[in-house]
Amino acid sequence: MLRFLFKRIGYGILVLFGVVVVVFLLFHALPGDPVSLIAGQRSDISTRQSITKELGLDKPLSVQFLRYVNDLSFVSFHEKSPQNQTKYSYKEVMDFGGFIVVLKWPYMRRSFQTNKKVTEIIFDNVDDTLWLAISAMAISSIFGIALGVIAALNQNTFLDHALISVSVLGISIPSFVSAILMAMVFGYYLSDYTGLNLTGQLWVNHPLRGRELQLHNLILPAITLGIRPLAIIVQLTRSAMLEVLSQDYIRTAYAKGLNRFHVVIKHALKNSMNPVITAVSGWLASLMAGAFFVEYIFDWKGLGFITIKAVQSLDFPVVMGVTLFVAAVFVLINIFVDLMYVVIDPRIRLS
Amino acid sequence: MSEIKSLDPTTVLQVEQLQVSFMHHGRETRAVDNISFKLHQGESIGIVGESGSGKSVTALSIMNLLNAPPAKINSGEIFFNSKKYGNTDLLKLPEQKLRSIRGNEIAMIFQEPMSSLNPVYTCGNQVDEAIQVHLNLNKAEAKEKTLELFREVKLPRPEKIYDAYPHEISGGQKQRVMISMAMSCNPSILIADEPTTALDVTVQANILRVMEGLRENHDASLIFISHDLGVIAEVADRIIVMYEGKIVEEGNVFKIFNNPEHPYTKGLLACRPRLDVQMKRLPTVSDFMTIGDSSGNGQKKHYKSIGEALLLNAELKKETIEKRLEVIQGGPILQVKNLTTTFPIHKGLFGKAKEEVVAVDDVSFDIYPGETVGLVGESGCGKTTLGRSIIRLVDPKAGQIIFNGQNIHELSGETLRQLRKKIQIIFQDPYSSLNPRQTVGNAIAEPLKIHEILTNKKEREARVYDLLEKVGLSPSHFHRYPHEFSGGQRQRICIARALATNPQFIICDESVSALDVSVQAQVLNLLNDLKKEFRFTNLFISHDLSVVKFMADRIFVMNDGRLVEMGYPDALFDRPKEAYTRNLIEAIPKGDVEDIRKAQLRRRLAYARKTLFQNE
Fold first, then answer.
1. What's the pTM value of the predicted model, to 2 decimals?
2. In order of start, what are the domains of chain A with their CATH numbers?
3. Between A and B, how many CB-CB pairs are < 8 A?
4. Which residues of A touch B180 (CB under 8 A)?
5. Residues of A with CB below 8 A from B129's CB?
6. Which residues of chain A have pLDDT under 70?
7. Partners of B400 in the β-ladder
């Protein structure tokens, strides 16, 4: 078990390294001059030079890459100086006379636009996305599995056909269309009845009461985001369930004298969960990447929102940072899912 | 109709005029056609018939476990003498009452122990569950009872198996878990649907013994379903023979075995490979009766009795000796020297094997051209690995395999492909060894195409038509898909595919183990006929010694990866040297009258002893 975990983490680090290489090369090949983006209008030569030096743009690409990796790594080597201490906020581990090995959080540099640390930007916005993704996945898993089971148990009836047709619609509708429709219908035309807003954030700064949690603003974007995974989970659950229900051990369970509910919930459902877990985890990971359109349309200040804004203003460090962050989330969720499989299906051995 | 008939007190179950059909694409096929039978208290009846004869459907109807569409119970009554509800018609009982009978008063054991247990729960959990549904026991008490049952069915280390998942234990052990689950609530009827068909003969013998013991201890009546009369003879008092949904013959075991009346029963009895007589050809059911009405009447002369069938097909001693002399004329076609094949079980961090299982352990033998060599042993003895090592589907670790003077171990790439043209293999499971999305014709034509034997599509088709006819199918089957065929027909397709390249050597890996005895006889005869025509050498791998005895010129016995004994069939059977071989021989259900008498005597004695104790 433990060895499996180490192995998977090792693979995960390799994957992340690959992503770092690709991201680094991609953004250095892109047009756009970071120096003038940072310096803005006040572009006298000495400022430009110091910015170039600060960013290391005068060094060859390989050196720049090594520095980038060094910045990202949890364990890194730096010169001992107060500037570096404030820049990286590290914990010193070993000192080789002015040259130190340190422990620190990954340093993803600063935004060209706001000069805030990218890590800070990500952590300021990630909770909005996290809540949105988790509630969307919760909605779609709970309803998706329930509807899938209902469809499977009523195979080839009107209910089954209706659920399948609706789910096909759910899969094929683009998210920007569904987002606009949801926002218009429930947040505008029917807002008197639903009490929901067209747009809104999770946290709102109230002039008198300060920062307030606005949970009702979560409803529309979460449902919109959940539509497609929900439709897919319905279909996956249905087909897995049908397969399992025709197995011999289901007949054995009936032969024991168990009732239908018990057979379906205890004996069939657990066996049909493998494909569903794969789908749910995949979706959760990709929703963490920020559902760009949905966040944009509902004005939801999550990762997707800041990424779109950063792309528009060529704020490379933010885009790179978000990309790496999302890749890390993917890797972590995948490791978690592999562990889940073992819990659900004892036939899968970790090796 | 609606009145509940009062059963006489000794009858526990009475099936009256049961008719079940299946609807498929609007077409109705009758699976069970107006059958009636009775089961008495403490009695055990055997229902015998080939796949599709309606025996399983009958069993599932009693439990009301048929899937409602496509199955439909058209008419009939099934009276059951219930402890809880008195005399009831099971077909009219509401679902909730029926549930309290299922698993409690009527329990069932299924054919496939591998798939009949839920893979994601422990064995203990699944038996506990059956107990807790019907008996008012808490968790700890249920566990106690489960462990007691596990001990009763003689499972080794019950506590360990209680916490084991089904995939962690062997097939025989799984079936024991199923039996303890079925017996957990002391049912008055136990229905066993082919409970030993998927198991080795030696395991089968043990399971039958366990079932018999349990039945006596728990005082249950038994309905035992099998395609093999030999197995039924060991457990049943009375036999019901089913054919095409009808009961064609019914009677006490002695009567069925000594004086069968219906030609189908005679056919079933005659088609089992025998240990006492060496046969040239196995009589099949079609030798006794015309199968299917459309084929015209009486073009063929049928045997009147089993004796006649045996007499006309027996092989004379002289013929056997001639055959043996002919075989050793030339040098060996295949020489295996010190072959060892291993499988790694634990891989280290860098993929290096830490531990390994020795599947084939220093095995040497010669096979002569034109010979059929039987390789027997229990599952896990390494016989399949040995077969696969020969055509390098598995790479051996050490040793030499010399085929026609070529060292197979050294071949690679193109030469290895050439070798596989000359050595073909026919696998055990005809259901999974054919690609479901490939037509039968294409499956047979594929080796012709790959080995560039016939490059012209027309020629290939002609050859496939020819092969289909050779294996007893029709050229019109060319464009059909495997799911449209029965198990026996699929195995014929696999045989045709193996023959397509005109191989010199064919390995049959348990090729008839998944088939009914009646179909098995046909396929074995076919293999023998084809062998004469195509002149190939055959390595016939099986766990069933009686089949091997019929097929083989020489027999190799394998145990734990080693060849423990080899010899001519008659010598091996008359004077087995190894205890292992003797066990294998003794485990075969022989189905002769002497055995039946012994089995019945054993049951009577046990019963008498029991009633005696009860009276005291």
1. 0.79
2. 73-107 (no CATH), 118-344 (1.10.3720.10)
3. 70
4. none
5. 256, 258
6. 1, 30-32, 38-43, 289-290, 349-351
7. B337
